[in-house]
Write a structure and sequence with these properties.
135 residues, mainly beta, Jelly Rolls, 5-stranded antiparallel sheet, binds thymidine-5'-diphosphate
Length: 135
């Protein structure tokens, strides 16, 4: 099985009523990992490509809680997938060791990221050749 096959769209229940919507994400219930870190990306536009790295150990779940963006992932064999994040109750699960690019941000894009690991620059692979060579 290729790593890219583990990439999974997650649909979170929209709890809500006439007052509006509410989405809950709980570790091991809606995302397949323990949540240790949360960050979010906003203020990027459609000329920007972010990411351009892989992570040796971190899994991620990305959700456009506002606006839209696209995520392109590539595994070490060159298999690719493009995911459109365009609804606040849709996420994508990305396991470790995938090359990630985030792009085509709408002006109102807020991209929320959950991870199973604390930030550690040493587990980032920032060279595409190193990634393909499994370094
Ligand atoms: P960077 O990895 O370039 O962001 P992206 O994945 O969107 O391309 O991170 C931007 C800056 O923020 C960089 O200086 C590293 C820092 N950073 C942290 O300190 N902790 C974190 O959890 C993350 C994701 C980034």
């Amino acid at each position: 099985m290729s790593k890219i096959d583990a990439v999974k769209i997650l649909e979170f229940p929209e709890l809500g009523d006439e007052r509006g919507h509410l989405v809950v994400i709980e570790a091991y219930k809606n995302v397949p990992f323990d949540i240790k870190r949360i960050f979010y990306i906003y203020g990027s536009d459609n000329t920007v490509v972010r990411g351009k790295h892989a992570n040796k150990h971190s899994d991620f779940c990305l959700i456009n809680v506002s606006g839209t963006s696209k995520i392109k992932v590539t595994d070490t064999k060159g298999n690719q997938k493009i995911i459109n994040l365009d609804r606040p109750h849709i996420g994508v699960y990305l396991p470790s060791m995938l090359w990630k690019e985030m792009y085509d941000f709408s002006p109102d894009s807020v991209l929320l990221v959950l991870s199973n690991e604390f930030y550690d620059e040493n587990e980032y692979i920032r060279s595409y050749n190193d990634f393909l060579n499994g370094i």
